[in-house]
Design a protein that fits this description.
single chain; 11 strands; 121 residues
Length: 121
């Protein structure tokens, strides 16, 4: 089994910062890509940012320049540093990973339960 657990969400004023973390644990051999997505009330889930195991990053336009995704490869931990937060960033943020497990063949996708980020105006 593989588990992803997010933390670091909370309530912050517009212009403030938060740092999200996501720890992956279980029967993990490697994680080619980890990413963050978010879902605001009444909206579909959207991609936020991703990072490969070679360090290549990708961001949705709305957060580029404000958010930074990073990984601690040794700890299987994903981060999202969020600066200059806006009320429209309010959402549940989810960690996602495609994982090569040590006990099965192939790559499987996993997701966490999410952490709430609320930005007040």
């Amino acid at each position: 089994q593989v588990q992803l657990v997010e933390s670091g969400g909370g309530l912050v004023q517009a212009g403030g910062s938060l740092r999200l973390s996501c720890v992956a644990s279980g029967s993990i051999l490697s994680i080619p890509t980890m990413s963050w997505s978010r879902q605001a009330p009444g909206k579909q889930r959207e991609f936020v940012a991703s990072i490969t195991n070679s360090g290549k990053t990708n961001y949705v336009d709305s957060v580029a320049g404000r958010f930074t995704i990073s990984r601690d490869y040794a700890k299987n931990t994903l981060y999202l540093q969020m600066n200059s937060l806006k009320p429209e960033d309010t959402a549940v943020y989810y960690c996602n990973a495609n994982v090569v497990r040590s006990d099965t063949i192939g790559i499987n996708d996993y997701g966490g339960r999410g952490t709430q980020v609320t930005v007040s105006s």
